Amino acid sequence: MAPPDNDVLWARDLEHAHRGSPALLGVSLGVRQGEILAVTGPRGSGKTTLLGCLSGQLAPDAGEVWFNGVPLHELGQAARDRLRRERFGWVGESPQLVPELTAWENAALPLLLAGVGGREARKTVAEWLERLDVADCARLRPAALRQAQRQRVAIARALAHKPDVLFADEPTAPLHRADRAQVLRTLTTAGRTHAITVVLASHEPEVATLADRSVTLLDGRAAVGDTAAEGREDEVSCSLSG
Ligand SMILES: Nc1ncnc2c1ncn2[C@@H]1O[C@H](COP(=O)(O)OP(=O)(O)OP(=O)(O)O)[C@@H](O)[C@H]1O
């Protein structure tokens, strides 16, 4: 079965087990260009594993993942890595910055690796650091930053090269409650203003209110009644089959 033309990401009957222990059991979903999809569910329900399969970090044991008509599940590791580097952004639970580089150098890495000139990279990154309230940290190395500041730099890095899809897995985990709303708003606004598709995983159900649609995972399956399938009859049967 071919993916629908208007889905930037499309997955069908995804299964994945970690060392024999099943984490995904037949999840199907589609994400449209520029859409913000929340993936919610309790801890251990399979959210990280799903994002890993959708982003090409993990090869599913069964099922299909298509990105813009490209079958990710058929690509080798090197091709998947290239796609991730060039087309996807990733923000995880804890920021993984290069300790030897300053905040701005960390955030500029994907741009510089893509061949963008230093001056343009500097300008773009400065704007993102400003938007994320860490402009004054630009010249500091990660060790001199608080964990919440490091996470904001990691978010700037994930957005600066304007990925097609941003995967954010519990992106507010290292932040204080007061900072969470602002960072989530920055992520979703960035998605909407820059036409970046955002797949946002969180165990906090209220994150779904910021998204266009949501899917809830329970024990590796898409829960019955998820709004990721709302108004999309083609998907309802897939989502509920999991
Ligand atoms: N590397 C791993 N090795 C073994 N089991 C794993 C591994 N990663 C995840 N699991 C297991 O797979 C299941 C799904 O985990 P996953 O991290 O995808 O869920 P999650 O919803 O993202 O949870 P959390 O919010 O705690 O990260 C859980 O039972 C988890 O213990």
TrEMBL record:
PANTHER family: IMPORT ATP-BINDING PROTEIN (PTHR24220), LIPOPROTEIN-RELEASING SYSTEM ATP-BINDING PROTEIN LOLD (PTHR24220:SF689). Keywords: ATP-binding, Nucleotide-binding. Residues 9-240 form the ABC transporter domain. This is ATP-binding cassette domain-containing protein. One of its GO terms (cellular component) is plasma membrane. SUPFAM superfamilies: P-loop containing nucleoside triphosphate hydrolases (SSF52540). InterPro entries: AAA+_ATPase (IPR003593), ABC_transporter-like_ATP-bd (IPR003439), ABC_transpr_LolD-like (IPR015854), P-loop_NTPase (IPR027417). Belongs to the ABC transporter superfamily. Pfam families: ABC_tran. One of its GO terms (molecular function) is transmembrane transporter activity. The keyword Nuclease does not apply.
